[in-house]
Each structure stands twice: as C-alpha cells, then as structure tokens.
Amino acid sequence: AAKDGGRNTFRTFTKDMHDASARRLAIQTRLAGAHSRGDISLMYQPLIDAKTKRIIGAEALMRWTDAELGSIGPDEFIPVAESTGLIIELGGWALDEACRHAREWRDVIPNFHMAVNLSPVQLIGSDVASSVKSALLKYGLEPKALEIEITEGLLIKDPLEAEVTLNELAEIGVSISIDDFGTGYSSLSYLHRFPFTTLKIDRMFVMDLPHNEGSRSLVTAVLALAQRSNLKVIAEGVEDQEQAQWLTEQGCDILQGYLFSKPLLLDAFSALLDNRDTTDDGKTASSKGQP
Ligand code: C2E
Ligand code: MG
Ligand code: MG
Ligand code: MG
C-alpha cells in the first residue's frame, strides 16, 4: 500500500508539473497578442498623504483580462512577460499611459505624482532613460510628477548596470523608489549607492502593525534610517485605521492600501479626484473598485 501511495503521489506530482507548465505556456501564448487586442489596462491606487489624509498621487498597476483564460494577476503574468522580453513593450506602454493621466490629474491636484513599476528587464534591456524623457516631453509633465518603482532584485544581480541606469533617471529628475523594501536581500548600503528618493515598506511588515513587536521595531528602524538619509517613506498594504495611525505617528510620509482604496479603474479614479471632499479630515478615498 505504501508503494502504491508513493506511486500515486508521484503521478500527482508529475501531473501538477504538467498542469503548471501547460498554464504557463497558455499564458505565454495568449499574452503575446494581449496588448494588440486591447486586453491590457492600468488601474490606479491612491497614495495618501499621511498627515492630511488627502490623495497626493497614484500607483499604476497593470491588469490583464483574457477572453479564454479570464483575469490573470500581475504576479502571474509579469514574470512570463519578463522571461519572453514582452515586458519591454508592455512596460513602455504603461509608462506612456500613466504619464498621460498624470498630466491630466496634475490639473486637479497640483503636486500629484504618478508611480510606475519598472521591471529589472526594462532597466537593463532597453533605454529606459530615453523612454522616460520622451514620455515626460510628450505630455509636458514635470519630472518630479513621476516616480519609478523598482524592486531590489536587479541591484543584487547587476549592480553596475543598475547604477548607470538609475543615475541617468536621477539626472532627469524623476523620483526613484525601492519597492517591497525588506523582502529582498539587499544590504542597507544599497540605499546610499543608488540615487533613491523613496522607500516603500512592504505589506508584509505593515500587516501585523502595531501589535507585533518584530514588525514594529523593523518599521521604526527603517523610518529612522530613511529620515537620516532624506528618503520619503511609503507604507504599502495599510488595511486598518490602527496601522494608519501608528505609521503616521512614527513619521511615515505616505500611506497606500485598502483602508483608503483598492486600485481603481481609470474612470473611477478620475471621479474620485473630481468628487473629493476638500474639507474632509478623515478618509479621502472610498473603497470602491476591485483589487
Ligand atoms: P507592487 O508594486 O508592490 O504593488 C502593490 C500590490 O499590493 C498591488 O498588487 C496592490 O493591488 C496590492 N495592494 C495594495 N494595497 C493593498 C492592501 O491594503 N492589501 C492587500 N492585500 N494588497 C494591497 P497587484 O496590483 O496585484 O500587483 C502585484 C505586483 O505586480 C506589483 O507589486 C508589482 O510588482 C507587479 N506589477 C503590477 N503592475 C506592474 C507593471 O505595470 N509593471 C511591472 N514591471 N510590474 C507590475
Ligand atoms: Mg510597486
Ligand atoms: Mg510593493
Ligand atoms: Mg509587491
């Protein structure tokens, strides 16, 4: 019986492997034509000024809905797009689209800034600095209205290349943030080597605030370090009032999370800006929309 069990386990294992690679292949195949079919879009999640609780920006997040596969999350399709190189096209489009709306929304909120995620593949495989420059120029957008988010991965894999490109971006004057801070393996020395302006504390550390002592001391240390290094801090994944209050008291600059709003479709985000209550003292954003 033990032997049979073992064989069944093996069969299940190989079947799972087969299913996983079949899905990956299906994703790869469908993704190749997704952009031209108009199936790729951006959603916008508000960034909230911790002190005033007003919207001061948005993070653009990519979405894909396929006619056959349904809706696929970026955590699943971005890695595929990176491995095929398609991310260069998709990411270039996202940059352009996000800048276009940033220009519009800056008329509503003067210091509005748009955060765009950039894949490490874009940073080394394409001339990102020129793409950024032309997008800013095309829409007449001030550099400080744009924030480029990158994760730590590339800094470790190819620090020399990363340094060159990030310095080019810094020279343009756009903000550069280190995304998902705390989840990678980069040492704190990276913060000084690269021209970061902003640090985004990963949701993982925000989740258990303020009750978990480990999270609390980590976030406190990060905030102290950021203050000394003149970095702006954004907390991701803020889901309840207690977290928001604690983070604000500790000096975190910007809050992002479901407490304020999930990522919103273009029209919903525009409506939010148009209807926002300028005299409010509490919540600025609604919780409409889908993740
Ligand atoms: P990220 O850049 O760290 O984005 C934040 C993620 O956290 C988003 O997931 C957002 O929807 C989610 N989130 C925000 N607030 C909350 C909250 O309060 N609770 C919870 N549970 N989640 C929250 P999303 O949109 O699924 O994106 C996942 C990741 O995919 C992003 O993580 C980013 O690494 C990548 N990604 C998304 N769009 C793009 C893109 O245009 N280009 C590239 N290269 N990567 C992208
Ligand atoms: Mg991000
Ligand atoms: Mg993040
Ligand atoms: Mg993330």
Keywords:
alpha/beta, 8-stranded mixed β-barrel, 291 residues, 18% strand, 12 helices, binds magnesium ion, binds ligand C2E
Describe this structure in words.
This protein is an alpha/beta fold and 291 residues long. Helix content is 49%, strand content 18%. It has helices at 2-34, 74-84, 87-106, 120-125, 128-139, 153-157, 159-172, 190-193, 203-206, 213-228, 241-249, 266-275, and strands at 40-49, 55-66, 70-72, 113-117, 146-150, 175-181, 198-201, 232-235, 254-255. The chain has an eight-stranded mixed barrel with strand order 1-2-4-5-6-7-8-9, surrounded by six helices. Residues 179-180, 200, 202, 236 line the site of one magnesium ion (MG).
Percent range for β-strand residues: 15-25%
Number of discrete helical segments: 12
Secondary-structure element string: HEEEHHEHHEHHEHEHHEHEH
Biggest sheet features: 8 strands, mixed, barrel
Question: What structural class results from the helix and strand content?
Answer: alpha/beta
Q: Give the C-alpha Rg.
A: 20 Å
Tell me the total number of β-strands: 9
Helix content: 40-55%
Low-confidence stretches: 278-290
Major sheet strand order: 1-2-4-5-6-7-8-9
Q: Please, what is the average pLDDT?
A: 89
Sum up the overall morphology in one term: globular
Which ligands occur here? ligand C2E, magnesium ion
